[in-house]
Amino acid sequence: MNQDISAVTEKVQKFSAPIRALTEEVGKILVGQSYMIDRLLVGLIADGHVLLEGVPGLAKTLTVHSLASAIHVDFHRIQFTPDLLPADLLGTLIYNQRDGTFDTKKGPIFANFILADEINRAPAKVQSALLEAMQERQVTLGGETHPLPNPFLVLATQNPIEQQGTYPLPEAQMDRFMLKLKIIYPTREEERRIMRIHGVANQEKIKPVIKAKAIMDARKTMDLIYVDEKIENYILDIVFATREPGNYKLDKLKPWISYGSSPRATLYLIKAARAWAFLQGRAFVIPEDIRAIGHDVLRHRIIPSFEAEAEEMTSDDLVTEIMHGIEVP
């Protein structure tokens, strides 16, 4: 086993180096967003879509655009609006008068990286079309199914404070996002650096530093990372505690949780933990990996009850209580 771990560790360190180079390149123009960048890399390696939530001006769009610019991949930004149609996203069929046939005109969804800006501004039909692309990695146009490129990643942003002209995302769609990130304000010193970097006309440009193959190599290597049975049980305990808190001596949480996490939480937790270990250059998962990424995987998969809202308990608070209540192996 030690020999196997050593061999995997060599692979992990070899293939994680190019991924970590992305952080350095993106850091040329981004200040104080290491939390966001690290989680975006987790989504990238673990093949999971990411939802970024924060007030305007916190560099959500800039971060996603910068990350895509540092990789040799196709990138499309789609500004979601209330009048957006599924065809604006997926594409459409155009009638060819010359030979009486229909030609397929593919939409912006056919790219490796999709930035769905202000995703909650689009109506239900658009969300439904996006849902198929996110889950099945394919698009149906005129009865024909078209596979999406690989890698394919949806990075979506939304503003939590503005409700006018927005459509709450369906729970089924929220569950398709591997991670939901809560983006907060920078510190005073970070904002000073932002002012100095972005307060001038001539700014440094992001250059592509890796190709899509580096991402695929990282994903294959990530699958080799060892997860002990005790870690598997730890993940299961955390997820099942969101559904049956009483079984884990967390009776006080029972009236505060309307619905717990789906089995996707289990799958995404183990994938995200492997990706986190990969970024640390480790060939095995430890409990700290679960704790580091747990809130981002679970916060949008627990629905607080009315009692919790009355007590001003958020889903983040509930995840914290569960993490503290479950014994660490």
Describe the structure.
- The structure is a single chain.
- By secondary structure, the chain is of the alpha/beta class.
- The chain folds into two domains: 20-211, 3-Layer(aba) Sandwich (Rossmann fold); 225-325, Orthogonal Bundle (Helicase, Ruva Protein, domain 3).
- It is built from 13 helices and 13 strands.
- Helix 9 packs across helix 10, helix 10 crosses helix 11 and helix 11 (287-298) packs antiparallel against helix 13.
- It is globular, with a radius of gyration of 21 Å.
Keywords:
5-stranded parallel sheet; globular; Helicase, Ruva Protein, domain 3; 329 residues
Give me a quick take on this structure.
This protein has 329 residues and is of the alpha/beta class.
Instruction: Please give the number of β-strands.
Output: 13
Give the total of domains.
Answer: 2
Shape: globular
Please state the structural category: alpha/beta
In whole angstroms, the N-to-C terminal distance is 20 Å
- What is the CATH superfamily of the largest domain? P-loop containing nucleotide triphosphate hydrolases
Mean pLDDT level:
87
Return the CATH architecture of the largest domain: 3-Layer(aba) Sandwich
Strand order of the largest sheet: 3-6-9-1-10
CATH top level class name of the largest domain: Alpha Beta
Radius of gyration: 21 Å
Describe the secondary-structure layout.
Elements: H1 2-26, H2 34-46, E1 49-53, H3 60-69, E2 71-72, E3 75-79, H4 86-90, E4 91-96, E5 101-106, E6 113-117, H5 124-136, E7 138-141, E8 144-147, E9 153-158, H6 171-174, E10 177-182, H7 188-198, E11 210-211, H8 212-222, H9 229-243, E12 257-259, H10 263-279, H11 287-298, E13 303-304, H12 306-310, H13 315-325
Parallel strand pairs: 1-9, 1-10, 2-11, 3-6, 6-9
Antiparallel strand pairs: 4-5, 7-8, 12-13
Helix pairs in contact: 1-8, 2-10, 9-10, 10-11, 11-13
